[in-house]
Design a protein that fits this description.
Layout: H1 14-25, E1 28-29, H2 41-52, H3 65-79, E2 89-92, H4 94-106, E3 112-117, H5 121-129, E4 133-138, H6 148-154, E5 159-165, H7 177-190, E6 193-197, E7 223-228, E8 241-244, H8 247-261, H9 266-278, H10 282-305, E9 309-310, E10 317-321, H11 330-341, E11 343-344, E12 346-347, E13 360-364, H12 369-380
Parallel strand pairs: 1-11, 3-4, 3-5, 5-6, 6-7
Antiparallel strand pairs: 2-8, 7-8, 9-10, 10-13, 12-13
Helix pairs in contact: 2-9, 3-9, 4-5, 4-8, 10-12
Length: 384
């Protein structure tokens, strides 16, 4: 049976493959960013109530009023962007759905979109399925810094947008003010869109600050801010995300969102809206502190066993140098770790072009303490 040209050459990600391999050996899955931390009770209770109230019909295509109002309040309070809940927000099927709708609404086949490497593979494949051409700016460890010259070197007449993921999956990089100023100036000077994936915005370490590109001079009118609830509230399977943009951009994205998905799950929207309203600000500070403790514990163990970590500044992933394992490929090394001690990771080649990722594997430490402790003890038994 003939398949469409748009998926020719696409394969399911190593993230999914390593999860299947982990199940096969009965291991601890530190590969996929499942985030199986407890969901706040207030969100679970509010969602259960919404289900029992039978709030189960279609919502507006761009989300229920209560949730859009909570997102608008959060955007002003935590991101510094005054947002119109009626015209500038679209609730989506996760941030992945937000990006798919954005690509279909804002880009044409053949348009080029600049990404920073290491990248999140779903971003790349969504662009490819949309007919766009991903163009990569290679960043170098350990700081993954950018400069204007690297952006100018890949600019062409087909360049349409820059994609910024901060904090970043897989490296944990947090883009600072100076780097975001560089990106903002580049977008303004070349009349480009900026698309930002900020889903890890509350998971920051060592007093780092999350900055939203849409708040920089001249960027509100040209930025699509994508975010979601999955990581903040540990509800990855609920698939709730959102887009924030000026009406001229949010409107077309909402149109595609309606076409593809109709709406996000209505009772889940009510539950999250009520939960957001009830949660104290201390929740976000506690979340940050808990993840910093997990980062310090896990990266300390990686250093102890010789899998040198590139300590992240945010998010809940870490790239570890696996060179000393002397396996032929990163996939071989990840499988060696899994089959030897039962801990799953994702080969670094899932996040780089060519062979640049062969020296890394990525671990996810978004686990409850007992599971993370188990993974650490298993890793300590890895032959050196």
């Amino acid at each position: 049976m003939r398949t469409s040209q748009r998926i020719q050459g696409l394969v399911q990600s190593d993230i999914r493959r390593m999860t299947r391999e982990c199940v096969r050996v009965g291991g601890v899955n530190l590969g996929q960013g499942i985030c199986d931390m407890p969901t706040p009770d207030v969100i679970l209770e509010a969602t259960s109530a919404a289900v029992l109230e039978d709030l189960s019909v279609y919502s507006r295509h761009d989300g229920i009023t209560e949730l859009r109002e909570q997102i608008a309040a959060k955007m002003e309070r935590d991101n510094g962007r005054v947002t119109d809940a009626e015209t500038e927000i679209v609730v989506t099927i996760g941030t992945t759905g937000a990006f798919a709708a954005t690509c279909q609404a804002m880009f044409n086949p053949g348009d080029e979109v600049i990404l920073f490497e290491p990248y999140y593979g779903y971003h790349v494949n969504t662009l490819l399925v949309s007919g766009c051409k991903p163009v990569f700016v290679q960043l170098s460890a350990p700081d993954w810094t950018i400069d204007r010259a690297a952006l100018e070197a890949v600019f062409t007449e087909r360049t349409r947008a820059v994609l910024v993921n901060t904090p970043t999956n897989p490296s944990g990089k947090v883009f600072g003010r100076q780097e975001l100023e560089i990106i903002a100036g580049f977008c303004r000077d070349h009349d480009l869109l900026a698309v930002t994936d900020e889903i890890y915005e509350y998971i920051l370490y060592d007093d780092r600050e999350h900055l939203s590109l849409c708040t920089f001079e001249g960027m509100a009118e040209r930025t699509v801010t994508m975010c979601g609830m999955s990581k903040t509230f540990s509800i990855t399977g609920w698939r709730l995300g959102y887009v924030v943009a000026v009406p001229e951009i949010a409107g077309p994205i909402g149109l595609v969102n309606d076409l593809f998905y109709v709406c996000a799950p209505t009772p889940l929207q009510y539950g999250v809206a009520r939960g957001m309203a009830a949660l104290p600000q201390s929740y976000y500070a506690d979340l940050k502190a808990a993840y910093q403790r997990k980062r310090d514990q896990f990266c300390g163990v990686l250093e102890e066993i010789g899998l040198t970590p590139l300590w992240p500044d945010g998010a809940y992933y870490v790239l570890a140098d696996i060179s000393h394992l002397k396996r032929r490929t990163a996939r071989d090394a990840a499988m060696y770790i899994l089959e030897t001690v039962g801990v799953a990771s994702v080969p670094g080649t899932a996040f780089f072009q060519g062979t640049r990722g062969e020296q890394y594997t990525r671990f996810c430490y978004a686990k409850e303490d007992a599971i993370l402790d188990d993974a650490c003890e298993r890793l300590r038994t890895l032959p050196r």
